[in-house]
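Action item from last week, closing it out:
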Amino acid sequence: MSDTQDGGTGKVKPTAKKPATAKKPAAKNVKKRPTVEKPEMTKPVAKKPAAKKTAAARKPAAKKPAEGPPVPPLPTLGRADGPWSFADAPADQPFVSFGPLKVPAFPTLHANLQIDAKTKTPGGLLVGMEGGSIQLQVFAAPRGGGMWGDLRRAMARRVIMGKGTAQAIEGEFGPELIVNRPIPVRGRMVGNLTSRCVALEGDRWLLRAVVGGRDPLADECVAKVNDFLSRCAVDRGEEPLTPGTILPLAFPEGGTPVEVAEASAEAPLEGDQA
């Protein structure tokens, strides 16, 4: 408070001091928090359970066997006066040797040895031709022949027991057997498989041919197969064997124009003894 002089009285009056204005505290600098954007809320998508693989789906796909080149047709070889015992065969007739069985040689010959499931030895030869095949087997036979009648009747009995049919006819080489077997598919019979069975008898041997395929009874097929059979030969050997015994065959040796492959042990053979 300060003093002031009063003009009338000469007294000095004290001057009232203004109360001090209270200072407002300085506002503190408040740091602004960054604005956080709230994520847009979405409903969770329910995952579908993975489909269970079936047993068939889990199995790897079976590989298809590789298909070889198509088998060419059997050539027209021309008729000869065989089949022969090998010692009597013409010297100029070329052969492919499968042990006791000799077949005519030609560049497109396709042949597969078939393994007998019982003996585990080659018991038959399958000669391929367009649309079919010729199965050849050699049997020990009695001197003088006559075994084909017994074999033929035994084959007919087996076919008939299997719900098929068998008919004997007269062919160029003598009696033949025409066989029709039913084809089962999933327990149902969907057709017939026709085969032509021919036998040629020589000195203590019998050569049997079972011709199958698209149309084994067609005239052209019959003629070509007969030409082929008339040029075969058999080397029976001197070993004493029981009639009806199948002679084991052998693989040919060296450089012969023929494709030979060992068939499965389950390859079907008609070589049941009479």
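Closing note: Helices lie at 55-58, 147-161, 219-229.
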